[in-house]
Amino acid sequence: MREEEVSPEGWKPINVKGFINEIGPLLRPLERGEEAVYAMQAEARHLNPLGLVHGGVLTSLLDQAVALVAWNACDRQPTVTVQMDTRFLGAARAGDFLATRASLRHATRSLLFVDASVSAGGAPVAAASAILKRTAKTGQST
């Protein structure tokens, strides 16, 4: 879905700067619940030569979801991904709506541990466990 197109019913694009806008737009539900849920519509431009959504697209979507959860958990202070282990569980194709759920598992003073998953039509496609580090805003130290 290109930005000029209408988002699926119940979803709206969110303004996240950087790379995710090149593969997105990233969507969030109009009605926010307790759980962090994001999504994107898979298109032909997201496919690998086998006709499946490229693993790099799925990994980027997972990384963005864990980053947003960590950012919110840190009162919107910057974080960076230190490590992310991704497991590919199924396949997604053009036209699939990729729903991503992420949750904070644990936090210390400097590190956040976040889990995330991507599904298409309710079927699992990928999952990740990530460690993110709090970083300083410009002019601050950690």
Automatic annotation (TrEMBL):
Coiled-coil stretches: none
Membrane-spanning intervals of the chain: none
UniProt keywords, alphabetically: Hydrolase
Gene3D superfamilies, per database record: Hotdog Thioesterase (3.10.129.10)
GO MF term set: acyl-CoA hydrolase activity
UniProt keyword Hydrolase, yes or no: yes
Matches recorded under CDD domains: PaaI_thioesterase
All residue ranges annotated as the Thioesterase domain in the record: 51-122
NCBIfam families attached to this UniProt entry: unchar_dom_1
Protein name: Thioesterase superfamily protein
Organism expressing this protein natively: Salipiger bermudensis (strain DSM 26914 / JCM 13377 / KCTC 12554 / HTCC2601) (Pelagibaca bermudensis)
